[in-house]
Structure formats: C-alpha cells, structure tokens
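Subject: for your reference before the review

Hello V.,

The reviewers asked for a structural picture of the protein, and I figured it would be easier to keep everything in one thread rather than splitting it across files. Below is the amino acid sequence we used in the manuscript, unchanged from the supplementary table.
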Amino acid sequence: MTTKRSRCSSNVAVEYFWRFTANGQHIERTVEFLQKCLDKPGRVQNEYLEELNAAAFEDHLELAAKGRLQPGTHVKEVRRHPEVDLYEIRWDGIAVQGQDIVSGLYKDPEEVLVRLYYVETGEAWVVGLHGHEKAILESDEETNQAQDVEIDKAAELARVNAEARWGVPELIQRG
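And here is what came back from the structure prediction:
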C-alpha cells in the first residue's frame, strides 16, 4: 500500500488553519493547544522549556504552510479512517520537566512525542483538528491503541465539522 504525500510536504505553499479560530491566529492557537497537551500531573512549568517547545511547534507549522515538511519524519498519512484525508505532524524530543510528588525535587527533563492531526480536502489549505502527547505504554499494542483513540477524535472532528468548514471564518467566507 502506497502512502499519499501530504500537501504539507509538496514544496508548494498551503494555508494552515486551526479549527474554530479566526483573525489569522491559527498557528498561535495551535501552539497554545499543543502546549496545554503537555500539562500533566507531576509536571512543572519551566519557561525555558516552554519557549523551546513553542518554537519547535511553530517551526513545524510554518514548514507545513510552506509545504516543506519531510515525509515520514515530520508528516505521515493516517490510514485508520480512509474516508477522511487525515495526516499527522510529528514532533519527537519535546522536553518536559517533572517534579517528585513526595520530595518536591525537580526531575531531569525528559523528552516526549507530540502529534497533531489535520485534514486535507484537495484544496490549497489544511485544517488542524486535534493534538496530543503520544503515550508510550508497556507494549506497542497498548501504545497504538492509545493513539488510535486520539486519531478517532480527530477523524470525528473532521467529519462532524466539515459542513461548517471546521468553524474557520476564512473558509466559510470562501463558501
């Protein structure tokens, strides 16, 4: 089975939109959403790491808008829902810092994986739908099942909101 190439890796610029966002704040709102995905119990805010992570998220999204993501490394087709033209943008090595609940001591930063799912429609734009920190569990099967739950959320957002153009005013105006 061949993998379709995303518009975000076609070396042709595309417009990137984040669902239910207006006023040209699409990349900023996506970065905010992804940052919130990293907020977990036992983690502390670290302004330095947050700035690094925000820059990494923004960099991939800007590359996506320029059509310059690397297939397989930065972007991958999601085949779980073939009726939806769904892709994931991948970030590896996003740093987070934990804190020991008992002692209160900070732990060494650890690296996590973050995924963002977006839909393509055949037009020169894509819409970001859902993102999450990819959980690495005991087995590959458990890890894949957890990710499938997140993919299902993105596919549902794609289907349910397609008629309303994912709540993006710029797309609604285009009809």
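For the response letter, the relevant points are probably these. The beta strands are 15-18, 43-44, 75-78, 86-98, 110-120, 125-134. The mean pLDDT is 95.

Happy to draft the paragraph if you're swamped.

O.
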